[in-house]
Design goal:
Layout: H1 2-9, H2 13-23, H3 25-39, H4 44-49, H5 51-55, H6 60-67, H7 73-84, E1 98-101, E2 111-114, H8 116-137, E3 146-149, E4 154-156, E5 164-166, H9 168-174, H10 178-183, H11 189-192, H12 197-208, E6 213-218, H13 220-238, E7 254-257, H14 266-273, E8 278-285, E9 288-292, E10 301-303, E11 309-315, E12 337-344, E13 351-361, E14 366-372, E15 376-377, E16 384-385, H15 386-400, E17 403-412, E18 421-430, H16 435-449, H17 451-458, E19 466-470, H18 474-482, H19 500-512
Parallel strand pairs: 1-5, 3-6, 6-7, 7-8, 18-19
Antiparallel strand pairs: 1-2, 4-5, 8-9, 9-10, 10-14, 11-12, 12-13, 13-14, 15-16, 17-18
Helix pairs in contact: 2-3, 12-13, 13-14, 15-16, 16-17, 18-19
Length: about 525
């Protein structure tokens, strides 16, 4: 037990680091970049770009941006493959044995090397998020029961002996602190790493239905699936008529969310749980863990400036330009949409993550995730972004009493007698009072927040939203039909400039009728 206590105490450092980078944000990021460059001086990339000279420059950020271009996955794919085959000192010192396989919304099989340093930082980030919640809530009750996490799978890669590949959440679960596994972990990894997602959810429900679960860490979309299984299993096992998770886990206190935007699902999760709990949103990816909600009454997230990641931000309207502006936290502005680029202790150098951020404030720097760089429809000059779609859905739900469990938005071409518009494929947990009122609320909100959309609607160049209500489970059945494996990171694309996803989902819905 003494070893467990000592293991827990060593993790008190993350709170101190948060305090330090909030006090000196620009200096923290500058020093971190210099450390990363010095660590990688003798790598292939370090020699290619002259990291030794950059690291000693008086203005290390300016020197870095002048010498090291922005990169996409296409720029690192060949080197990532070499690293998987055992090549050393390529992008980061030494060899790498863990690889995060991105299976996100727009994934095409990207494989990101994950160094031991990144694992250490991500583990510290996770513990720090929990400790910060304790500091904010002043309620240690969640330490009195079990904690349920629902990570993705990680496994030995037979094609690359000696390496493991899987989701970043699974890599973190494999390297969880000893005190967490000994004192709090509700379900062992051999259960959460089951290859079949349906089998895993069922096994997790069976293992936890009679446990005192106090804290949840998972993607909101998959939590809803687990909750339905849990309630049914509880009623079957105990001859009960429970309708909420709170009747199964009465001491559930906090939900730590990641993977997708919480705001699209929070109301529905609260209703499923049935009693008040706290929510803490985090933002991480295969490339690193970036931010967490540090105040319970503020949904924006504090950007973690000392977690092994140096950040750059390209204004979204400049993305794809030959020489876009590369901002740092020293000069970003609230309200502007930025494409995120990271330099990390896994050997990513000015690498585009594929996410769009907006700062809600600076000093301290807080963000919201506005969506993926692909989360935009501009087929007819309307330039609608993912965050605007989410807020429109929230407004429509509030206006009509609806609850949305999943959705996708696609362009709808003009036909004889009608202008072009957007088709909203929506799976409702609770139908709106009237579908026409729901469509009207979507339209009114988008006109209010998006001038391009407003001008085209006012000029009768664009029709209002056309909502198609889908049968329950349609999106999940479409995911099953279009993915070899379903995992915690398998998500429905929210928006597309083409009809490919929409037509596939509608075909799946038609087969179920």
């Amino acid at each position: 037990m003494d070893d467990i206590v000592r293991s827990a105490l060593q993790w008190m450092g993350p709170l101190r680091r948060v305090k330090e980078f909030k006090a000196r944000p620009v200096a923290t990021q500058r020093s971190l970049l210099r450390r990363l460059l010095r660590r990688a001086v003798d790598t292939e990339w370090g020699r290619r770009f002259g990291f030794s000279e950059i690291a000693e420059a008086s203005d290390v950020v300016q020197a870095y941006q002048e010498r090291v271009p922005l990169h996409t996955y296409a720029d690192i794919a060949d080197d990532a493959e070499r690293i998987r085959n055992g090549a050393a000192d390529v992008m980061w010192p030494g060899t790498v044995t863990n690889f995060a396989v991105s299976s996100g919304t727009v994934s095409d099989g990207k494989v990101i090397p994950i160094s031991d340093e990144t694992i250490d930082h991500n583990r510290s980030f996770s513990v720090g998020t929990g400790l910060n919640y304790l500091k904010e809530s002043l309620d240690p009750s969640f330490f009195g029961g079990s904690h349920l996490t629902l990570p993705g799978r990680v496994e030995e890669d037979p094609n690359y002996p000696g390496t493991k590949a899987g989701e970043i959440s699974g890599i973190l679960a494999e390297n969880a602190p000893g005190f967490f596994r000994a004192l709090f972990q509700a379900v062992p990894n051999e259960v959460t790493f089951l290859p079949s997602w349906e089998e895993k959810l069922q096994a997790v429900a069976e293992r936890t239905v009679d446990k005192d679960i106090r804290l949840l860490v998972m993607v909101p979309t998959w939590a809803l699936n687990l909750f339905d299984l849990l309630i049914d299993l509880h009623n079957e096992r105990h001859g009960d008529t429970a309708t909420t998770v709170g009747e199964v886990w009465p001491n559930l206190q906090v939900f730590i969310s990641g993977g997708v935007a919480l705001r699209s699902y929070r109301d529905l999760i609260e209703e499923k749980i049935g009693h008040d709990i706290d929510f803490v949103e985090t933002y991480g990816a295969s490339e690193g863990f970036f931010s967490f909600q540090d105040e319970l009454d503020d949904p924006s997230m504090l950007l973690h400036l000392d977690n092994g990641v140096f950040y750059e931000f390209v204004p979204l309207e400049e993305r794809g330009d030959d020489a876009p502006t590369r901002h740092t936290i020293a000069d970003v502005e609230p309200g502007v949409r930025y494409s995120l680029h990271v330099t990390s202790c896994s050997g990513l150098w000015a690498y585009e993550v594929g996410d769009v951020l907006r700062f809600t404030q600076t000093f301290p720097h807080k963000i919201t995730v506005a969506g993926r760089t692909s989360d935009m429809i501009d087929e007819y000059g309307e330039a609608i972004y993912g965050d605007e779609v989410r807020t429109a859905l929230k407004a429509a739900c509030e206006a009509t009493g609806a609850h949305v469990s999943d959705y996708h938005v696609a362009p709808r071409p003009a036909t004889n007698g009608t202008q072009p518009g957007h088709e909203w494929l929506v799976e409702f947990e609770r139908l709106p009072d009237a579908l026409a009122a729901f469509e009207r609320a979507l339209d009114e909100h988008l006109q209010e927040v998006n001038r391009h959309y407003y001008i085209r609607r006012e000029g009768d160049a664009l029709d209002g939203p056309d909502v198609s209500a889908l049968p329950e489970g349609t999106f999940y059945r479409w995911l099953q039909a279009t993915n070899d494996d379903i995992s915690g990171q398998t998500k429905v694309p929210r928006m597309s400039d083409t009809r490919e996803v929409a037509d596939g989902v509608l075909a799946a819905a038609e087969r179920d009728r």
